[in-house]
Design goal:
Strand 1 (57-64) and strand 2 (67-74) form a beta hairpin. This protein has one domain (4-140): Sufe protein. Chain: A (Alpha-Beta Complex), CATH 3.90.1010.10. The chain is globular and about 45 Å long. The protein is mainly alpha-helical and 141 residues long. The chain has helices at 4-16, 22-34, 77-90, 95-100, 104-108, 111-114, 117-140, and strands spanning 57-64, 67-74. Helix 1 (4-16) crosses helix 3 and helix 3 (77-90) runs parallel beside helix 7 (117-140).
Length: 141
């Protein structure tokens, strides 16, 4: 059974395979982060901060037509790139699909091996927040 989330993860893994080394992958992450949409200052409030990230991360979720739309930003370049990856995989997806699909892209891309422990913790915190938003959306229906 394939899901939209699983397909998005697979596309991302295939995209990263174009890069021969991790320096190129880091640069690509940074470039992805630079292309994040504008994040309004009005959303940069404490209530939208993700705990467990060394850098500052603001994350907002809205449900539209049974799907979750995410917006987020960080004050750190590589973390912004990770956010761009997460938004690409999870934004616009159904909450149940998010919960039913493990984040296998983390292992496939070997992110734990190539991110600092604090960035790995931050990625885990952001993934947990996405799952929490999905759980809350399902409970609200």
């Amino acid at each position: 059974m394939s899901s939209e989330v699983a397909e998005a993860q697979q596309e991302l893994v295939e995209e990263f395979q174009f890069f021969d080394n991790w320096m190129d992958r880091y640069q690509y992450l940074i470039d992805l982060g630079r292309r994040l949409p504008e994040f309004p200052a009005s959303d940069r409030v404490d209530a939208n901060k993700i705990r467990g990230c060394q850098s500052q991360v603001w994350f907002v979720a809205e449900e539209k037509d049974g799907r979750l739309e995410f917006r987020a930003i960080s004050d750190a370049a590589i973390v912004s790139g990770l956010i761009a990856v997460l938004l690409r995989i999870y934004s616009g997806k159904k909450p149940q699909d998010i919960l039913d699909t493990p984040p296998e892209f983390v292992k496939a891309l070997q992110l734990e091996a190539h991110l600092s422990p604090t960035r790995s913790n931050g990625l885990a915190s952001m993934l947990k927040a996405i799952r929490n938003f999905a759980t809350e959306a399902l409970q609200a229906t």
